[in-house]
Specification:
It contains eight helices and 23 strands. By secondary structure, the chain is an alpha+beta fold. The strands form two sheets. Strands 1, 2, 3, 5, 8, 9, 10, 11, 12, 13, 19, 22 and 23 form a 13-stranded mixed β-sheet that branches. Strands 4, 6, 7, 14, 15, 16, 17, 18, 20 and 21 form a ten-stranded antiparallel β-sheet that branches. Strand 2 and strand 3 form a beta hairpin.
């Protein structure tokens, strides 16, 4: 296989296939995949460590001619992993036949096989979402039960999600909602892997040349209607005892998970991160990767973080399994890419939907702690669903 510099590709999203797009982009830069040269599937509790071992073996046997040498060049696999150990959804590593990329003004093409023929734009379509397995009232009841359990002592935090579903045309062009997400939320990771597509604001982990970084999001508030109200919303979030407590659980879980694989770990104090539809409490974590570890090893150590599961992890996962009447699939799981050197970028699959045949299912969750109010948490999930609902509408 070979990677060569190329002329600028223009919109990378427009180069994708319509039904099985492969993409991981931010602010228009990143990589997209055409066709499929190799697909690996994994299940069960060891799915990520199994993927890491399989990828090491594949990378060790590969012959790569890479004259560009940027993150995302050479041999790359797109990946997406199920949230739960017991999930029926397969976790995937997919090597495209052709990869198109752009970073820091440099464009490239990696050829592993033959790219499929280009597809013309599909017809616009619109879908209307309805409550799924957990209705709004059911969600409030689940939150109330979680608060009761948390008040009794275990867990301290649990992230509860709800789902909405819609019918979708069998020939729907998935490039259309993906492009809407990328345009509306350029600072997020626009991703698509095996029918899962979304725009995640949360970096799970990034590894490049021995440097490790992550962005932790936990705690959120709606944007204000005007500048003054918006500033008040941000300052209120930063001062919220409930949200600061939720955020502290998330930061601690990331630092504890990265410590065995990294040195010089440091976390920036929380700050209010502005997104088009809400504010998040955010913290950035940096460190240095210990020798021999890869991005997939970091992913295996980190998943699931307190931001998408809770704390303590096992108690939170037990409560989620009890109160959520659906399989999350790959929602809230790791999504991203890894290269032959073990470097990669991984986000948490949030603000996303899974397309299966003629059904699309979207998910959103909220972190529940002792001070949570069911109505407020339901409203938070509605805010988090808005990007994907609008993209498909």
């Amino acid at each position: 296989m070979s990677t060569k510099a190329s002329a600028d590709h223009g919109s990378l999203l427009e180069r994708l296939g319509s039904r099985q797009p492969l993409a991981f982009l931010r602010n228009g830069d990143g990589i997209v995949g055409l066709g499929e040269a190799l697909r690996l599937e994994f299940t069960g509790p060891a799915r990520i460590t199994d993927a890491a071992a399989a990828w090491r073996s594949i990378a060790a046997r590969a012959t790569v001619d890479d004259s560009v040498g940027l993150p995302g060049t050479g041999l790359v696999a797109f990946g997406s992993f199920a949230f739960a150990d017991s999930s029926r959804a397969a976790s995937l590593l997919i090597v495209p036949s052709v990869i198109l990329g752009r970073r820091d003004g440099v464009s490239w093409i990696t050829r592993i096989g033959t790219a499929p023929a280009a597809e013309p734009p599909g017809r616009p379509f619109s879908v209307a979402f309805e409550p799924g397995a957990l209705s709004p009232e059911g969600y409030k009841a689940a939150v109330a039960e979680a608060v009761s359990r948390i008040s009794s002592g275990s867990p301290r935090k649990a992230v509860l999600a709800r789902d909405v579903v819609a019918g979708i045309p069998a020939d729907a062009d998935l490039r259309l909602p993906l492009a809407r997400l990328a345009e509306a939320y350029p600072d997020t990771y626009a991703f698509a892997v095996a029918g899962l597509l979304g725009a995640s604001p949360e970096t799970l982990v990034r590894s490049s040349g021995g440097a490790v970084s992550a962005r932790v999001l936990a705690g959120s508030a709606a944007r204000g209607a005007d500048a003054q109200a918006d500033a008040t919303a941000a300052s209120t979030l930063s001062a919220s005892r409930k949200d600061v407590e939720e955020h502290s659980f998330a930061i601690r879980s990331v630092l504890d998970a990265l410590a065995p694989l990294s040195t010089d770990l440091a976390a920036r104090p929380p700050y209010a991160l502005r997104l088009p539809n809400l504010w998040h409490l955010a913290s950035d974590v940096t460190g240095t990767l210990k020798g021999g570890s890869s991005a997939l090893d970091l992913v295996a150590a980190l998943h699931p973080t307190a931001a998408v599961a809770g704390s303590p992890t096992e108690a939170a996962l037990d409560l989620i399994a009890e109160l959520e009447p659906f399989d999350r699939g790959r929602y809230a799981g790791p999504v991203g890419w890894v290269d032959a050197h073990g470097d990669g970028e991984w986000a948490i699959a949030l603000r996303c939907a899974q397309v299966d045949g003629e059904t699309v299912t979207a998910y959103a969750g909220a972190g529940i702690v002792a001070g949570s109010d069911p109505a407020r948490e339901l409203a938070e999930t509605a805010l988090k669903l808005r990007p994907i609902v609008e993209a498909f509408a």
